[in-house]
Design a protein that fits this description.
It is built from 7 helices and 5 strands, in the order H-H-H-H-E-E-H-E-H-E-H-E. By secondary structure, it is an alpha+beta fold.
Length: 279
């Protein structure tokens, strides 16, 4: 009897230790199972959110598929005892794929927004160019109407604009400042009609030496051509002629008639750049 009691007392600590180990293992298993369940629930929530987002399905379908596959594997492993670490691993992977899918979708949406903004910018630029072109066309039409209003005659040489004697001092080939406004309109018209060309023709009355009059007419025509060139019209678009006292507009027997004859005429080509025949 004493021997049995002694044996029981000897083995009691071992039994207690074994019971304590079993209890600890049970508690650890419960805690690990609880962590796995939380990870699985979080992964399920993350996957459900991306699966229901049409933008994510459109922008990152492969990532959504990977998230679903990882979640399914975590759910299968959760049914086996002792697989908590694997459940956590695949649940984590599923949540990460869901997060990656959202990030890829965000980048896609930003790119689409930038592309849309660029298209809108291009559309606005096109509208501005069209509006500018329409404005230039309207401006050109207005200037053309103003130029036509200055034209004195329609001849077989084309439309002719006459710059009167008041634009030059007597015997001088230098244009007066009062000519600037007329010259500016002339240049604007040529800028808006780049195919048109002009012939600048100088004339004098019959007072004085015939040769001197011829030279003065050429110098005055050249002065007008120089201003046109200085304001940006290329020389190939301009011809210069001097006729002296030839081709008078009026009789040279009166001051009024002689003033009409002292002039510079600008002859315009047609819209294709063809000038009429010279005198």
């Amino acid at each position: 009897m004493n021997r049995v009691m002694s044996l029981a007392m000897t083995q009691a600590p071992r039994v207690i230790s074994a019971l304590m180990l079993c209890s600890a293992a049970s508690l650890y298993g419960c805690a690990g199972h609880q962590v796995s369940e939380q990870a699985l629930q979080q992964a399920t929530t993350d996957f459900q959110n991306v699966k229901e987002d049409t933008d994510v399905l459109r922008g990152a379908p492969k990532d959504v598929i990977r998230a679903g596959e990882s979640l399914a594997r975590a759910e299968r492993l959760s049914t086996f005892w002792g697989s908590g670490a694997d459940v956590n691993h695949y649940a984590f992977l599923s949540s990460r794929y869901s997060a990656i899918a959202r990030e890829h979708t965000r980048l896609m949406l930003n790119q689409e927004l930038l592309a849309k903004s660029e298209l809108e910018r291009q559309r606005l630029q096109l509208e501005l160019r069209e509006a500018k072109l329409a404005g230039l066309q309207q401006q050109g039409k207005l200037i053309e109407e103003q130029m036509v209003a200055l034209v004195t005659t329609q001849t077989d040489r084309g439309l002719v604009m006459t710059l009167g004697d008041v634009l030059f001092d007597t015997g001088n080939a230098e244009l007066k400042p009062s000519a600037n406004r007329t010259m500016l309109k002339l240049v604007q018209f040529l800028q808006l009609n780049p195919k048109r060309t002009v012939r600048v023709e100088g004339y004098t009355d019959n007072t004085g030496d015939e040769h001197a009059n011829l030279e003065l007419s050429k110098e005055r025509a050249q002065a007008v051509a120089d201003v046109i060139t200085d304001l940006g019209i290329g020389e190939p678009r301009i011809q210069v002629e001097g006729y002296g006292d030839q081709f008078p507009m009026d009789v040279n027997t009166s001051e009024r008639g002689r003033a009409k004859n002292r002039r510079v005429e600008v002859v315009f080509s047609d819209e294709k750049g063809l000038l009429g025949a010279k005198r």
